[in-house]
Amino acid sequence: MAPTTSKDENDLPPSSIELMLFAALERQGIRYCHWKSNIRLDKTLCGREDIDLLVHPSDADAFQRIINECGFKLAVSRMGAGHAGVFHALAWDPDGGRLLDLHAYHQLVSGDSFVKSFRFPVEEDLLARTSSLMGVRIPDPTSELVLFLLRMLLKHISIVEIVKVNAHYDECRDELSWLLQRSDVNEAAALCEDWFPSVRISMRRMIDCIAHGSIPLRVAMGMRVAWALRHQRRLGHVAAGFSRIMRVGKHFAMRVRSRRNLSLLTGGAWIALVGPKGTGKSTLAKLVAERLGKNLDVRTIHLGKPPATWLSFLPRLCVPAVRKALPDERLSEYEKPERRAERRYSTFFVVCKLLVAYDRRRLLTRSMRAMSSGTIVISDRCPATNATGLDGSAFDDLAITQARSPFQRWLMEQERSIYRRLPKPRLVLKLSVSIATALKRDLTRCKPGGPDPNAVRRRWRLESEAEFAKSVICPIDTDGDLEETVRTAVTRVWRSV
User: Fold this and answer.
1) Is 298:289 a contact under the CB 8 Å cutoff?
2) Other CB atoms within 10 Å distance of the CB of residue 268
3) How many angstroms separate the CA atoms of 326 and 483, rounded?
4) β-bridge pairing 51-55 and 472-477
5) Rounded alpha-carbon distances, angstroms, from residue 426 to 262, 300, 355, 376, 382
6) What span, in angstroms and rounded, lies between the C-alpha atoms of 494 and 497?
7) How far is residue 437 from each of residues 10, 380, 478, measured CA to CA in Å?
């Protein structure tokens, strides 16, 4: 694949999917607003920030229809960290080459980002006080200022959230300055008293605290606000504490395992990338996983090189020495057309193939468990359903008939039985390039023994003839620009999951 020609993120145009979404919301008369962080609305429209929409509960059904028509798919938290009245949806933007993350609120909840212990019952008033910015409905600046002050102070009542907020606190000061330039502080004070009469703290003091106060002062002020809003808590102190411990623990456990929290409501899927050597399977599998894995739980596996199991570990250690001592047992010898036509296999070769089949079954068993829990599994290679000998069963009916002994025949039948029972991928991306391009790419690959053009030519026909029954096949030419190829591949995957 040719080198990528990605654009600078600052030069990205607004996402066509987001423009379509907001146009549809206006056209259908949906009561909504993008209720926070509107200082970065331009980045939101480009897909670089989350979309945080407050939607009137009475318009929930129409809103669901609109986001479905715009290509959004509902997502759920794998660790059960969702909140009542809030849901996630994702859409793939092929023009921008990224996933769009929509957070839809039917009720305003706030507090620290893990628990959101407080409910702000001002949805009706907020939706009645909106203006337009860049074609998007947002709260009027005074309303947004009031909510911003309370949200920022409530984020200082949790140790974890204090660390998170203050890691980028300059952004908070910038947002406060932006809101103050567009708001009337006296009007904001009156609105805060109307919406939250229990918060008997001067608006000026809250502004000064966030703008210039030290962390201890912000913590003290946050505690005062939390106490004033104690009757609007969604969770009591004890329940919120246990919930925070559970959520933070699961969050960091998933971080350690390099896993993401979200999975699609439709569940997981197995996507396989196949094709001859030099078509870019490993590169494309990695990049597709990176694009989807920024938001979703994605796992990559290599079925061409399954990890050893307890059964195959010791025999694998002996294989290199045996093949070095017996040149006829090298894989390159068995890949030659004349050797394949003879269907002449040693017991050593048959046992090796059976062990590889066992290892692949074990890897796929674990992967299917993850998939059943919502993980998208991206595999480099996939067992073929016809006996090509590459990544699938090596023995056809004639090979079993011509086996040298009943024991060898039994081993072959066991190997075939394993492959017949393996699950099938939902989608197979069948990659292709010209043989000249494949040979050129092979010259640049860092691998033991260096480039091997003979191996590329020898395996080309075998890998091109592989069949994958009961899977959707999608051909992709990888001879062009890498970025365009990645976007095409992710688009195909997104349509199938």
Assistant:
1) yes
2) 24
3) 44
4) unpaired
5) 20, 15, 25, 11, 11
6) 5
7) 34, 20, 10
3-state SS, residue 480: coil
**pTM of the predicted model, to two decimals?**
0.87
CA nearest neighbour of 374 among 80, 103, 64: 80
CA-nearest of 292, 289, 290, 291 to 264 is 292
Mark out the alpha helices in 343-405 (DSSP H runs): 347-372, 397-401
Greatest C-alpha distance within the chain? 94
> SS3 for 273?
strand
Q: Which residues contact 37 (CB under 8 A, 6 or more apart)?
A: 44, 49, 52, 175
Contact 94, 69 (CB under 8 A): no
Per-run averaged pLDDT (10 residues), the chain, 497 residues:
53 88 96 95 93 96 96 87 86 92 94 85 95 94 96 90 89 95 94 95 95 94 94 84 77 74 91 89 94 93 92 87 83 74 85 93 94 94 78 86 89 93 94 82 65 72 81 92 94 95
Is there a contact between 389 and 398 (Cβ–Cβ < 8 Å)? Answer: no
CA distance 140 to 133: 10
